[in-house]
Design brief:
By secondary structure, the chain is mostly helical. The chain has a domain of 178 residues: Peroxidase, domain 1, CATH 1.10.520. 56% of the residues lie in helices and 0% in strands. The protein is built from 13 helices and no strands. The longest helix has 27 residues. Pfam families: peroxidase. Keywords: Calcium, Hydrogen peroxide, Oxidoreductase, Peroxidase, Potassium. InterPro entries: Ccp1-like, Haem_peroxidase, Haem_peroxidase_sf, Peroxidase_I.
Length: 353
């Protein structure tokens, strides 16, 4: 499987970001330029010697060698045995996924902006889909199963959010070149879009409702740059069966201890429960009032309440993004080739030697 980096193994070639350091084969362009210089230098030497017939044969040899090298490079690009230097194929796939992801976010932003009242439901939809994960059996998680579980008590009132995503999916699939988007990915990215909207709305509110000033404030102090890891977790597969019942509490009726137990069961804790208060029902203030009565949750609730009063809201937003990222990866084996499509191959039949 060619991931983000399908590469040639060579010690010391990778920099801090996994990009090839200086190397004679660090890029196809550099390799091809080297071939051209080599060919030109040898041909000029032969011309100077006046060996016309020998020159004709040698030119053919050099052209054949250059074509052979190009074909060899194409074969290396398609190989999954090499690690170390990013190939053109990897960069193409990364660009394809990035462009598709940007289009998805645009579609979701417009859909959510048209129905802002569904933001709490979209957040709960993402939480309830992911928190079905069971560490012992490695089942459940952010697998899109919630679309098959709406009749359960814990998912009451979430049908409107799923309807919005179903309509958005039709539009997304219509322009996708790499196959339909999974509900598992769509649900988590909708939660991301909903959070970004809530972050931006908070910045606008701090500017007295002035949208232009609010956007400027969020651009300067917001946490948009913290989404990098979340964005790379892209390529979840949909399950075709509902997850087992009883794994998700009815948040509005569950005790704080029951909520803590559920978070602990998936590897989280009171800190993450406190920061996810907006995901636990439509009334965040009422949820926090319940959580603050618990000694384990109280310091975290108070911390995030103070953070939301600051200009940057850094503690709250960064911890919330981090927690959603963890939840969205539960139970997932990410396919890093998802939504990519084949790059153009060399047609050997059209080569003129």
């Amino acid at each position: 499987m060619a991931g983000f980096l399908s590469t040639v193994q060579a010690p010391g070639l990778l920099g801090a970001r996994g990009v090839a350091a200086s190397s004679p084969v660090s890029s196809p362009a550099r390799r091809h330029a080297h071939i051209q210089v080599c060919c030109k230098g040898n041909v000029e030497g032969l011309e100077a010697a006046g060996h016309e017939e020998h020159l004709r044969l040698r030119r053919r040899d050099f052209i054949g060698g250059c074509v052979g090298t190009a074909i060899g490079l194409e074969m290396i690009e398609g190989s999954t045995k090499f690690t170390g230097v990013a190939t053109a194929a990897d960069l193409i796939e990364r660009r394809q996924r990035s462009e598709f992801q940007s289009s998805i976010k645009d579609t979701l932003y417009k859909a959510i902006k048209a129905k802002p009242e569904l933001v709490p439901s979209l957040l709960t939809l993402a939480l309830n889909d992911a928190i079905t994960y069971d560490k012992a059996t490695k089942t459940g998680g952010a697998n899109g199963s919630i679309r098959l579980e709406l009749s359960r008590p814990e998912n009451s009132g979430l049908s409107g959010a799923l309807d919005l995503l179903t309509e958005a999916k039709k539009e997304i699939d219509s322009y996708s070149k790499g196959g339909p988007i999974s509900f598992a990915d769509l649900i988590q990215f909708a939660a991301q879009s909903a959070l970004k909207k809530s972050f931006l709305d908070a910045a606008i509110a701090k500017c007295g409702g002035n949208e232009e000033k609010g956007r400027t404030l969020y651009s300067a102090y917001g946490s948009n740059g913290q989404w990098g890891l979340f964005d790379r977790t892209f390529g979840r597969a949909d399950t075709q069966e509902a997850d087992p019942e009883g794994r998700v509490p009815v948040w509005s009726k569950a005790s704080v201890q029951e909520m803590k137990d559920r978070f602990v069961a998936v590897g989280l804790g009171p800190r993450q429960l406190a920061v996810m208060s907006a995901f636990l029902g439509p009334d965040q203030a009422a949820t926090e009032e319940r959580l603050i009565a618990d000694p384990d949750c109280r310091p975290w609730v108070e911390k995030y309440q103070r953070s939301r009063e600051t200009v940057s809201r850094t503690d709250y937003e960064v911890d919330l993004i981090t927690t959603l990222t963890k939840l969205g990866s539960l139970g997932q084996k990410i396919n890093y080739e998802a939504y990519t499509y084949p790059k153009q191959k060399i047609d050997l039949g059209k080569l003129k030697l």
